[in-house]
Amino acid sequence: MPTSHRTGERAPACGPDDWFSADDIYLFREGRHARLYEKLGAHCVRAQGQAGVHFAVWAPNAARVSVIGDFNGWRADAHPLTVRDDGSGLWCGFIGGVTHGARYKYHITSRDGGYQVEKADPFAFFSEPPPRTASIVWHHDYAWHDEAWLRERRARLARTAPVSIYEIHVGSWRRVPEDGDRFLTYGELAERLPAYAVDMGFTHVEFLPLTEHPFYGSWGYQTTGYFAPSARYGNPGECKVLIEALHASGVGVILDWVPSHFPTDAHGLGYFDGTYLYEHADPRLGYHPEWHSSLFNYGRHEVRSILISSALFWLDRYHVDGLRVDGVASMLYRDYARHAGEWIPNAHGGRENIEAIQFLRDLNEAVYRHYPDVQTIAEESTAWPQVSRPTYTGGLGFGYKWNMGWMHDTLDYFSHDSLFRKYHQGEITFSIWYAFQENFVLPLSHDEVVYGKRALLAKMPGDDWQKFANLRALLAYQCGHPGKKLLFMGGEFGQWREWNHEGSLDWHLLGDDRHAGVQRLVRDLNGLYRREPALHERDCEEAGFAWADTADWQQSVISFYRLGATPGETILVICNFTPVPHHNYRLGVARAGLWREILNTDAACYGGSGQGNQGGVTAAPVSAHGQHHALNLVLPPLAVVFLKAPDEAES
């Protein structure tokens, strides 16, 4: 009998009635089974005196299910499975002689006999590279060596930690032009990405979905393989090598995960057994009009078990450190992206998706119960309350939430010509009113540099010099603002073009000093953010922030303090959002002594004009802004300046 990769226990026997325990069946049907991947799918075992594979699939409305593959000539009559007699709808069976690497599918005949289909295994651990669609038998024997990382990772994603996330799409970060412009493999990424992330000072890498997806242009957000990394870039073992290489370099891994919808491809989950099994039958509940995909039926207990098992799978078998849950807003509201008459109210007449809400709470409870040292992160774009608050207080239970309001207001503000920004001061200050209602991540993500929205640099107004200066100011403002940070690839060196998943980033731009200067700034901002506790310890606490001055709207200047947990640990951030430099700019401060200039985005090494405060400014005993001391500053054009307060003993 084989050994479980997770628990070390002996796997069950292989008959239809003894592969699953009574607890397995009960938890599955209750929606509380968290590790179904250990039972469903294809598992290499030894039974009946020979090595082979045990297959199991959920198809409660099928009349007949068989395994077809390259081991039986893809004949539907060769290896039928047996359905359990307990009403669970689980079909299973052992096929001797099938080995690791074999290709297979399930041939399913519906009860009315009028529907026959070949389906990929929803629990497959590996698949053929698209456009081929067969599943592949794969075992998960892998010797991990990241114990040291796992012991300390809890502190790396904590609310008090510096969290700077580099979001990347594996297929377009870098390509190999001399080899047909092909993708980098997981192994090649393992040789390049960790060193780059470390050099740039990022604490975590977030991958757009690695789960298998038939359409490359979906970027992974149209998932068919919820338990398989995309074969475009290599096999599961090679994917683990990449993750382990990042961990060995001290970089965490966050995976985009999509439990909100799935594509309608014939080999996928849709109409799986001749009925709407995973999705709702009524398109007003089961079809997403924007994404042209199917919506999961969260009211079906078995579906909840399968999705929660997928989340735990990536934590169990791939050691990922966080899950960014895509499309949470679309899950919470029945009328999301729908017009009147295109949706059905809940049992109470409201627009809330009660079943999805319960699923999200169950999901987060399961993740944190098994892995209290990881984080779940919600992409939620509405004002739904308590997204990142515990379920026992009525929250959804996520660890963090993307701050989409901050992103929209900030990019809107920066899009204005500097001459008119004084009329939009509220756009840049409003986010603080709600900055601590959730545990926020500040995203400058892939969604903002596609579909005609333009790259970050191209969004900026003014001539080329002003565009670069504006971009540097934006990135520094993000660093100073409360909340964890996320930047999509290419933004760190000021790519001009919109992101195109069909090609590599424009790395050649780093031959231009202006782009190299942006990259140098991002590297230094990450270093500053990690080095200065005041910039990260209280990212999620109101006590970590105080305004210095918001009233200078006529000059489009704002200034604020970031406050550390240690008394006296203070950083002053001053932003001049116009191209007009200000000399002898007076700003009241609470402490005497030398305020050291620790970063200035207008420094010549970043491509700026080189104006600044020559290392620091000593506060004079002059009253201003309600304080008893004041700084006489130089505010460079379109720039952000960081000043570190003197120690209390020095003041």
Give a nutshell description of this structure.
The chain is of the alpha+beta class and 651 residues long. Among the domains are: 22-136, Immunoglobulins (Immunoglobulin-like, Sandwich), CATH 2.60.40; 166-402, Alpha-Beta Barrel (TIM Barrel); 542-644, Sandwich (Immunoglobulin-like). The strands form eight sheets. An eight-stranded parallel barrel has the order 10-13-16-20-21-22-23-24, surrounded by four helices. A six-stranded antiparallel β-sheet has the order 25-26-27-32-29-30. Strands 3, 6, 7, 8 and 9 form a five-stranded antiparallel β-sheet that branches.
Report on this structure.
The chain has 651 residues and is of the alpha+beta class. Among the domains are: 115 residues, Sandwich (Immunoglobulin-like), CATH 2.60.40; 237 residues, TIM Barrel (Alpha-Beta Barrel), CATH 3.20.20; 103 residues, Immunoglobulin-like. An eight-stranded parallel beta barrel has the order 10-13-16-20-21-22-23-24, surrounded by four helices. The protein has a six-stranded antiparallel beta sheet with strand order 25-26-27-32-29-30. α1 crosses α7, α7 runs parallel beside α9 and α13 packs parallel to α14.
